[in-house]
Amino acid sequence: MMIRFYAASAAIYLGAALAEIAGCFAFWAWLRQDKSAGWLIPGLLSLALFAYLLTRIDVSAAGRAYAAYGGLYIVTSLGWLWLAEGIRPNGWDAAGAGLAIAGALVILVGTQVTR
């Protein structure tokens, strides 16, 4: 049961992170890279998907879901940096991502232990 909870949470968080990053990047491209305003339509849809996905996390409080999400968001953002922007993360990035994931795991494990 616990493995299913963590696997489902990780999948939802990964989907939410990709949706948020894609949505925010659409605005970045429009404002910083002179792309057309047409980029905003998929960007807004992507941000709406991000918000919806976070409601699917099985925890008792929204703030806890958002706090745990932060760890996976950081790792996913570094993946975006490397794959979409062509900039390889460095050791400091990896260390920060590791700390963020550790913090997210503490929050998620704590929600299951105190149930």
Automatic annotation (TrEMBL):
GO terms for cellular component: plasma membrane. It is found in: Cell membrane. It is a multi-pass membrane protein. Keywords: Cell membrane, Membrane, Transmembrane, Transmembrane helix. Pfam families: UPF0060. It comes from the Bacteria. The chain crosses the membrane at residues 36-54, 66-83, 95-114. The keyword Cytoplasm does not apply. The keyword Cell membrane applies. InterPro entries: EmrE-like, UPF0060. Belongs to the UPF0060 family. This is Uncharacterized protein.
